[in-house]
Specification:
360 residues, alpha+beta, Protein Transport Mog1p, Chain A, 7-stranded antiparallel beta sheet, 6-stranded antiparallel beta sheet, 6 helices, 21 strands
């Protein structure tokens, strides 16, 4: 649905990460240090590794690693639903129609639910209201079954922005034709994106792509590693500010920061991703590591929003909620470096460097 304007949908609060706590006179306040006794040796975890996929990326991780997909979108698709919860794809579209009607009582169906555009799929057009009907502005909803999941495509036409109904239908058709069930274990060698439960063969790189995923490690129960990329985000205004600039601004605006910097600075990955790094420890011992790059809108090789993070002492999705940390500071830095350097494109994309590609 056009360019994603907001770049700053942060995975976690990091605006002041890395700034030591100061009192009103500027003296550093003593803070408890994390234990230096190693609990788990990271090199032992990496004795056996595997590749795991997210969007067009792959990351080399310890063999025990498990994945939790977050928000995923390619060309306005696909929200996921359990196939077992619906009689067929048409029943999901009827349920979606009820939601549309609840949100806008003047909405109406512009067509009947139809078969296609590929085998097993169904689609329907809606008018959002009277104004939309007068200006032929329609909502397209399509459902594609793959494995035990129904994948929902939703998009709105806008002729003035170059999205006529026929173009949206072609986009949906291309994505559905490229979709197949994916077990999350094999590493596809075709160009395209890995989403939860499906792989979409997509060699043109022309769609908006927002991909996010978390990774966790049974041997490190309090540690979370996350990756998020937004291909068409805006870099205008504040969206163009890098991680370090935002941290420095926050430091100037506030007095107290319960963080100690472990490492900060510019860090380029694979001769391509010229990002910035901020690694910090909070007063409760939780570690907050971040790397970000401000790239170029619609550049698949250098997306405008590319964010990687690692957190420790995580429990119930809250940083600091775990009673203890699985890692010393030194081992956490070792894990961070191994994971960050192991993040690459799964297969080559236009503009990438040879060292930024996992499978050649």
């Amino acid at each position: 649905m056009g360019m994603q304007r907001s770049r700053r949908r942060m995975l976690a609060a990091t605006a002041c990460a890395g700034v030591p706590l100061l009192n009103s006179c500027g003296w550093r306040i003593p803070m408890p240090l994390a234990s230096t006794a190693p609990r788990v040796r990271v090199d032992d975890l990496f004795r056996k590794t595997k590749l795991m996929c997210i969007g067009r990326y792959a990351v080399e991780v310890p063999d025990e690693t498990q994945q939790d997909f977050g928000f995923q979108e390619i060309g306005a698709g696909f929200k996921q639903f359990r196939r077992a919860d619906f009689d067929d794809p048409s029943s999901l579209l009827r349920a979606q129609w009820k939601e549309v009607l609840f949100e806008n009582r003047t909405a109406e169906m512009a067509s009947e639910i139809a078969e296609g555009p590929v085998a097993g799929a169904r689609y329907v057009w809606f008018y959002w209201g009277d104004y939309a009907k007068r200006h032929d502005s329609r909502l397209l909803y399509g459902v594609m079954p793959a494995g035990d999941t129904l994948y929902l495509y939703r998009a709105m036409t806008n002729r003035r922005e170059g999205r006529p109904p026929e173009e949206l239908f072609r986009r949906m058709t291309a994505l559905m034709r490229g979709m197949r069930p994916w077990n999350g274990i094999e590493v596809p060698r075709q160009p395209g994106v890995c989403i939860h439960g499906a792989f979409i063969h997509e060699p043109t790189h022309r769609f908006q792509e927002i991909m996010s995923s978390g990774f966790y490690f049974p041997s490190l129960p309090d540690v979370r590693f996350s990756v998020m990329s937004n291909k068409n985000a805006s870099v205008e205004g504040d969206n163009g500010k890098g991680l370090l600039e935002r941290v420095d601004e926050a430091r100037r605006e506030q007095i107290f920061y319960p963080y100690i910097t472990l490492r900060r600075g510019k860090r380029t990955l694979h001769g391509l991703w010229d990002g910035e790094e901020m690694l910090a420890r909070r007063s409760d011992g939780a570690l907050l590591f971040d790397w970000e790059m401000v790239g170029q809108p619609r550049n698949v090789a250098r997306p405008p929003w590319f964010v990687v993070g690692l957190r420790t002492r995580v429990a119930d999705d809250k940083v600091g909620a775990a009673k203890s940390s699985s890692l010393s500071d030194a081992q956490a830095l070792r894990l961070w470096d191994r994971l960050l350097e192991g993040l690459r494109f799964r297969v080559a994309v236009p503009g990438c460097t040879p060292q930024s590609v996992a499978l050649v």
